Amino acid sequence: MSTGVGAIRVGRVQATLFLPTHIAEIVDAARNVWDPASAQRISPHVTVLHHAQSAPELQARLEQIAPALAPFRLRLGRARRWPDPNHGVYVTVDDLDHGLARLRNLIVTAAGRPPRGGYIPHVTLAHARTVHRAEIDRAWAALGTFTIEETITIDAASVITSTMTTWITVATAHLGPA
């Protein structure tokens, strides 16, 4: 349940791709300035699917799917602002091998529901759940030219769940055959 800026929904479950350390450090340098609450709660990541029904169900799906998927590449780009300015600032993510799309579609299909449109892979730099609108405006002014421009390889996906103050990794599934 969210109670405004700074609150996170307790018990939210999601599939997440954590960024490699050298990229996470670059992202966290910006987040520590513009969204320190998020930086303290969760490492930099790309969300594959949020609002999953339960951590055990999502974990079982990932464990079933992961061996059939090869590691894949993502290209991190430049800062952008969501069309609704209240949503925040993010870094673009290009799914070079379509591995992220395959992973997401397989998780959703295994859950028995159709994929929802409108999903935009991204790495959040400042989000309206944790940053007031005026601060998001200042973040955008400062981060409008922020770029990473690096390709990373994703070889694992994690199931995470939220508490009042942080996110906890419940399980991690490695992609490709064991």
Descriptive report:
The protein has a single domain (13-172), classed as Alpha-Beta Complex (Cyclic Phosphodiesterase, Chain: A). Helices cover 30% and strands 33% of the residues. It has five helices and eight strands. It has helices at 21-34, 36-41, 55-65, 99-110, 133-143; strands at residues 13-18, 45-50, 72-81, 88-95, 122-127, 147-154, 156-162, 167-174. Strands 2-1-7-8 form a four-stranded antiparallel beta sheet, with helices on one face. A hairpin with a 6-residue loop joins strand 3 and strand 4. The chain is globular and about 45 Å long. The N and C termini lie far apart (38 Å).
TL;DR of this structure?
This protein is an alpha+beta fold and 178 residues long. It has 5 helices and 8 strands, in the order βααβαββαβαβββ.
